[in-house]
Structures
1.
Amino acid sequence: MARLLIVAAAGMGRRLGRDEPKALVTLAGRPLVSWTLDAVRSVLFARSRVAVPPGRENRFEAAIGGRAGIVTGGETRAASVRRAFDSLAAEPEDFVCIHDAARPFVTSAETVSVLEAAERTGAAIAATPVVDTLKRVDGDRVVSTVARDGLFAAGTPQVFRADLLARALAEGREDADEAALVEALGTTVSIVFVSRLGFKITTPEDLEMAEALIRSREPKSRKERAK
């Protein structure tokens, strides 16, 4: 059994207001994908792949610096993950960890927890409880309030036994995440509670929060030199 890593980095940053891949957007002076790979660097993966947009391979190679192999992604997330998965040549008993490049604050400990849960059950994902009151709307009008009991926001990492993931990807569906593909097989997916700091950077406001979080973690001496 081996642990394998796929970083989904083929999305563009249009909701960030950028005409470039989101994973190459600069966060505190470094590409987002670089922070994300650093976040899981202490987890031992036998092989790692980053799925990137076509035509941007050289820029990603410079950003990654040899820490993972590059795979040209497809038109959708599912297509990109399929290509990365195929390149890993996984054995059925291996476990594949899929992580969004836009979630740079996941911790190695959280990643290991999701891996270990999947190794017990076959499939596991990172998730956080929904804390906001949810409203169903029609246009600009509230139709109803949705009870949030039992609702969780799915995140990444998401980890699956390779034979399950292969079957799910072979179905050719285009769901929101890999967990939905695996669920469609009738497989139960376990959840692992993780910090809300593992949020996905999607909007300019998210990027501002990420910058502030990084600044808050800087050593005091470095902050003083930056003044």
2.
Amino acid sequence: MQTFGQRLINAAKLDVATYEEVEADSSALPQAMVAVVLASIAAGIGTTSGFSVVELVVDSLGALVAWFIWALLTYAIGTKLLAQPQTKADLGQMLRTIGFASAPGMLRVLGVVPVVGNLLVLAASLWMLAAMVVAVRQALDYTSTGRALAVCLVGFVVLVVTSAVLGGLLLFTS
């Protein structure tokens, strides 16, 4: 069994065996959630436009909430709408695998680097998406990486559209 640090590194390396290990290890959920929180804080730091503590907290919490909603959407889509006959996963397995898929998201802290920060955040976010695809493929026992990618992208699009609509409603009513 790998240490937490080894799991983070190997998850970032898109190591299939690591995703299988955390899927099977029901005690890995707290570690997975720590990975998500660290990646959310990194996103908050890397995407905050100023040095406001309030903005940092709001951005970090926003990233955390968005991740959780995306995780739930991905689980529902992957186990109900796009399931294959061999797909058998519970929410805990899904949260553990995609929690560790957040590991590359810790690099979003590099958004503070002048000139190239936004590019580094984008690169880390795309890497995180790739890790999530591997995590979903392994957790849901898919035979196709394309199916796992579709599950992740559909969940992401639903999240973005819902956020835009809710954000628009909040602006309209205030």
3.
Amino acid sequence: MRGAFGKPQGTVARVHIGLVIMSIRTKLQNKQHVIEALCRTKFKFPGHQKIHISKKWGFTKFNQMNLRHGG
């Protein structure tokens, strides 16, 4: 809340430690652009943020290596 008389200026969410805030799925050729964008985005959120690059295929439970090599 900012401004005079405590008027709300936006929307917030309570986030617990270890909770995923944002997930992005992209092509492999755009990986560095996405990492750079997330590094810049981290500063817009209070607290400590960590970028985790998953070994899964998209948002599935399957590993990338298993799907690429057929095993």
